[in-house]
Amino acid sequence: MNILILGPGAVGSLWATKFQLAGHHVSLWGRTSESELSLQLDDAPLTTYSNQSISSLQEADLILITVKAWQVESAIEPLLPHINADTIVMLMHNGMGTAEWLESKLSDNPIVIATTTHGAYKPTKQHVLHTGHGYTQVGGFNAKGAKCEFLQDVMNHALPSVNWNPNIHSALWTKLAINCAINPLTAIHQCKNGDLAAEQYSSLLEAITHELVEVMNKEAIVTDFDTLHRTIMQVVNATAANYSSMRQDVFHKRRTEIDFITGYLLQAAKKHQINTPENAKLYQCLKQIEQSWTEQ
Ligand SMILES: NC(=O)c1ccc[n+]([C@@H]2O[C@H](COP(=O)([O-])OP(=O)(O)OC[C@H]3O[C@@H](n4cnc5c(N)ncnc54)[C@H](OP(=O)(O)O)[C@@H]3O)[C@@H](O)[C@H]2O)c1
């Protein structure tokens, strides 16, 4: 396949190199205007890819968007006039809320959403490290996207394991709920995920979870307090030594994905007229932290 990676950061470079090693024709669309970019995955040889090539964009069978949630609009907007209506457009980022906007701009295209637990890190511009093996869930966002189940085999061949999930909406909500519980708290307290298992966080995590369950149920996601709380604590324990991406973003004073994580939850809660005071407090706290950087 002709695959274009929009946003070759850590996750984008991981998939670019894996697709290339699986025999696909891969090109990149990064922020720099150099016509070529080189990438090395772990100890594999350095490989060169075309960058910002309009013809590669026009000929793409698949565009994989791996920018952060808040970067999606500004990254895709200038590319819109060149995207063929047959091109499958796949979003792969934490948080929710970008697919609705994407569909409003590319209503004729198959739109697919992916969520991954693989870990990737770019110590330099050219070098990407596959830091943690995980799995990827993929599913259609619109009717045409729902017919793209063949992508499971294509992606599984490149970077297993990949599972086509006809109910990707539910999987995304569960991931969002885990992120709502873990990311803001670890960012505010600058702690590791495992620190949230301490007694001092237990009643707050329970309150956050109750709010999440109420909103998710109104969104027709089947879950209950015990199930979601168990899932959240399993992730806290399984990733105990890790720093969440939001903790890292705050540490480095980078804009976080809070608007597309807790912000998305709060929008859904407002729509259903549900009170979510604990999540609202976390959201406000993160926004204040982000705001404080621009005031310095
Ligand atoms: N890294 C992980 O292990 C991991 C795991 C699971 C999920 N995720 C999620 O995956 C998403 C991507 O994470 P990441 O770690 O790969 O982030 P990242 O390294 O910051 O990658 C984003 C890339 O998009 C580029 N970009 C931004 N705006 C662009 C534009 N207008 N045009 C072209 N390229 C643009 C950035 O370029 P610049 O470098 O110039 O800013 C950067 O290279 C996030 O939602 C993250 O939460 C990450």
Automatic annotation (TrEMBL):
PANTHER family (UniProt xref): 2-DEHYDROPANTOATE 2-REDUCTASE, 2-DEHYDROPANTOATE 2-REDUCTASE-RELATED
Limits of the Ketopantoate reductase N-terminal domain: 3-141
GO MF assignments: 2-dehydropantoate 2-reductase activity
Enzyme Commission identifier(s): 1.1.1.169
Source organism of this protein record: Vibrio alfacsensis
Residue span(s) of domain Ketopantoate reductase C-terminal: 167-290
Keywords: NADP, Oxidoreductase, Pantothenate biosynthesis
Gene3D superfamilies: N-(1-d-carboxylethyl)-l-norvaline Dehydrogenase, domain 2, NAD(P)-binding Rossmann-like Domain
Catalyzed reaction equations: (R)-pantoate + NADP(+) = 2-dehydropantoate + NADPH + H(+)
Family under the similarity heading: Belongs to the ketopantoate reductase family.
Function comment: Catalyzes the NADPH-dependent reduction of ketopantoate into pantoic acid.
Protein name: 2-dehydropantoate 2-reductase
Residues in the signal sequence: none
Record keyword Oxidoreductase present: yes
Pfam families the record matches: ApbA, ApbA_C
InterPro entries, A to Z: 6-PGluconate_DH-like_C_sf, 6PGD_dom2, ApbA, Ketopantoate_reductase, KPA_reductase, KPR_N, NAD(P)-bd_dom_sf
Pathway connected to this protein: Cofactor biosynthesis; (R)-pantothenate biosynthesis; (R)-pantoate from 3-methyl-2-oxobutanoate: step 2/2
